[in-house]
What does this fold into?
Amino acid sequence: MFHGKLETRWVREGKKPPFPEGEYLLYSTIEPCDAFTLYNWCGPEIALNIQKKLEGDTSRFRNKRALGIGTLIDVRPMVKEDEKRAFVKHIGYKVDVINGKHITKRQWILEFENVYRILDFEWKYGKQGVGKVPDFEISKIIKT
It folds into this structure.
């Protein structure tokens, strides 16, 4: 998000993502993403774009870390034109099988502004992306 990235989420068709506008904590993955997985997620063109954007950014090697704060300003369905900024392919819809039922999900965009880095700290509460900050963690957040 420090480089203008759009966050993406898959949400069950007919529902809007449960993300109200406001401030969110931005955090890294628990486990690093290898080049093969990244290539499969986004293809060669987007993978190269990611490498160029993150060149010299040491936060890309910081796993299990809270890294920044950003203000969510828009939540909308993803379109093809979002691919470069979202760093993932636009698929639109996918079908997951959950407990034997076929569930259709839609690809959504979360757009942030006023994104800034914080003095990073351990964050083990989620995968990768964004989330509301638990009250007991607020005292750890120091703007850099």
Notes: The mean pLDDT is 82. Strands lie at 7-12, 22-27, 65-77, 93-98, 101-122, 129-131. The longest helix spans residues 35-54. The chain has one domain: 7-140.
